[in-house]
Write the structure tokens for this entry.
Amino acid sequence: MDTPRDDDRTLLTPTGDVPLQEYHLRAAGRAWAILHTGAVLTRDDESHFLGELADRLPYGVALWPATIALAHEILARAGAFDGKRVLELGAGTGLPGIVAASLGGRVVQTDRNKLALEICQRNGARNGARAIEHRLADWAEWDDTERYDWIIDSDILYGEAAHPALRRIFAANLAPGGRILLADPFRAASFRLLEALEAEGWALVVGKWNIGEDAAMRPIGLFELAPSRRA
């Protein structure tokens, strides 16, 4: 007899069933459990994923170090999200937005990939995050006209072809007095966008988290952006 499949711990893809792992984040007396297809914490993990798995799995279903760093940064700013409108771009597994929602944020999580958004929704439900709306959305065909107090995203700046669309979203969807919070593993392409925004007058504050252990420690930059007064 076949062993029954645990549907909550399995992702159905066009190329077959993929077992899901669980990551636990514990901080400030609280805990979150996030399903993912595998953790991509080191550069070797990243090379393996991009070389062997990316052709059949979207990036967002893996757990990336920038996602973990962004979740910790949001926890460190807990009071700043209470009652605020939050837009998460490229939500993937959804950890940062779920944490923001648990801190009182009213969150919209978006991803252009249906499998990633399925994992995101599943993780929100598993963690009791009720103040979250999920939207399938492509940056190139963006039609959201809402304004948000926070726009958050982790490791989405690697593709320079997407930079013009992201800049339009930043300008159109950030509310007056709002902030953008980006987590990125110091990729060269990301710096080019951040430097261009700073040259245009955006205020940029840089922080850092180290994710992982010992020799596998991965430094992750946290970049807070605010538009200039003339923007």
Notes: Helices lie at 43-53, 65-76, 95-102, 114-126, 163-173, 188-199. The CA atoms of residues 39 and 63 lie 5 Å apart. The longest helix spans residues 114-126. The chain is about 30% helix and 30% strand.
